[in-house]
Amino acid sequence: xxxxxxxxxxxxxxxxxxxxxxxxxxxxxxxxxxxxxxxxxxxxxxxxxxxxxxxxxxxxxxxxxxxxxxxxxxxxxxxxxxxxxxxxxxxxxxxxxxxxxxxxxxxxxxxxxxxxxxxxxxxxxxxxxxxxxxxxxxxxxxxxxxxxxxxxxxxxxxxxxxxxxxxxxxxxxxxxxxxxxxxxxxxxxxxxxxxxxxxxxxxxxxxxxxxxxxxxxxxxxxxxxxxxxxxxxxxxxxxxxxxxxxxxxxxxxxxxxxxxxxxxxxxxxxxxxxxx
Length: 276
Prior knowledge:
The chain has helices at about 30-45, 70-80, 80-95, 100-110, 115-130, 135-145, 150-165, 165-180, 185-195, 200-215, 215-240, 250-260, 265-275.
């Protein structure tokens, strides 16, 4: 949830789903923070996972037969040189045009460099070579949902979950189903994400928001409280390590829970937006 503070990103493993991670609200009033929280709730923006699970569980084979330029590209990526990595990946694609790892990594690099259409094309090529390449299906599905092709994107996300389920893929599938208006599907998949990763704060938060939208106050409060405690733990860990604060301010969720206790709930959040 985007507020008056910087967004949290995970460059090593970008999530194409249009999630904006909330960081600690350091200045201004809590009321303002709640107001902005609600703004994103109303427009259907989602938060990005605090701890994104590794996609190593997805079907991403890397064989010894790949060209040397592919391995050079991977070294440059680790060093943070995306442009250099992309150049080597393009050379690798010339040498091995049907190599799924090359096509997949091309898509990743292009997406990170905002070459979205090229990324989509290479993810599609990877899936043409290997229809069960779950990582490509996940990323392609997430991008399509973000661009507004929700139904097609959900199909790819569902396929990714069927082939290699992870907390991240369940989370994004749930959020995408919610965007289509399927609240029960959203709840089921967020619960699956939590089952695989119990400390998935963003999944608990979005689950609570979804319950609130359905006027299920007890379950909404329960999920929001778990999310609040997990965010607070993250803040304390970061402060202890002198890394600053890069997590959702637990006080914001306290205000959300208070609104539910008052009997106003989501309506109060919306009123906060109108009063801005």
